[in-house]
Amino acid sequence: MSTPAARTARRVEPDRSPLLGVPRRLVSLLWLPIVLFLLFWSPAQQVSPTWLYAGLVPAVAGWVVFALHRTMPPVATVLTSVALAGGGIALLAGSDGWTTSAAFPMMAVFVAALRLPYRTALFVDVPVIAATTVVVGPYTSLWDALLVVAALTAMVLFGIGRRDSARRVEEHERTLVADARAREEHARAEAIADRARVARDVHDVLAHSLSALAVQLQGARLLALRDGAAPDTVAQIERAQRLASDGITEARRAVRALREGPVPVDVAEELRELGRAHPDATVEVADGLRLGAREGETVLRTAQEALSNARKHAPGAPVTVHLRRDGDGAELEVVDVAGAPPPPGDGEGSGLAGMAERAALVGAELQTGPTPDGWRVRLRLPARSTDRERITT
């Protein structure tokens, strides 16, 4: 793929005329019929038939090639200038003095000065100026010869000026591209630094707090066993201890994702692990389904939030988790029976907002709402989710 800097580097001259606001190639082509009209229909433009047809073909061909091709190799540019100059000098040789035919050698020196390096342009333009000056003669005074040389030299300077102007525009655009790239790199570096800071905060606060909670729950379980607490009490403490351990694992995964970005995960195994942590959940995953790292993470977080909501609002209700193909994409569906939507207020329902935000980041479609006998969460991943970095489930 070509970058803006590369596209700028290939540009040789501005694409539009600053005066007329139309493409320069159109302006160049419009001058050709004007020159030809004056050449054929003006009484003062008398060119002998032999010189007319010998010079007209290469001159017109060179003009058309210059107008239609914005960039050419140096050899092609030299040939174009030679064709213009040769044809124009032939037309001048068959006419009387300085006539409209001089437009062709003037265009030749302009093309060479515009599109060739300085030394090469000098090698082409000096012979063309000399030959044109000789063919236009004889002169009645030295000033007439100097005027011919001055007119051709002015075209050379005009071409050099155009090329220098285009080069300045090119350098300015390259500077803008470099500045934009530097700003983008700076913003990316700031984002990475912010993510690292958040990762440190999560690790120092959340992970440490959960680790301390897990230790305390372990002590509580041992005390309950020592004091002969009821089996239900011990089971609740053990379940809380498992939840704390799961929270530590999730916190460490979040820290790693913040520091390193999304990493491929085994979606099928992770979903089954979530199902094992939810006694009333049934998990079904299509065989051979492939998801990218971001999409797999979105599926896991959506399923985790949906199961947490089901456990909170419909404890004991059966829950089914399906991850299946949907055309060229994939679909996650979590349905619980006798469930209810999260009640509004006091921060409840923010999990649904978080799921929607995750879905939007990967271009997925999230649908949540009640069913006749429960609550359903459906996440539909687009087909392009299988075209990124892949993992096998």
From TrEMBL:
The keyword NAD does not apply. Residues 300-384 form the Histidine kinase/HSP90-like ATPase domain. Residues 365-393 are annotated as: Disordered. This is histidine kinase. The chain crosses the membrane at residues 26-44, 50-68, 75-92, 145-161. Keywords: ATP-binding, Kinase, Membrane, Nucleotide-binding, Phosphoprotein, Transferase, Transmembrane, Transmembrane helix, Two-component regulatory system. Residues 195-261 form the Signal transduction histidine kinase subgroup 3 dimerisation and phosphoacceptor domain. The keyword GTP-binding does not apply. It holds the Pfam family HATPase_c. GO terms for molecular function: kinase activity. It catalyses: ATP + protein L-histidine = ADP + protein N-phospho-L-histidine. It comes from the Bacteria. Its EC number is 2.7.13.3. InterPro entries: HATPase_C_sf (IPR036890), HATPase_dom (IPR003594), Sensor_HK_TwoCompSys (IPR050482), Sig_transdc_His_kin_sub3_dim/P (IPR011712). It comes from Pseudonocardia tropica.
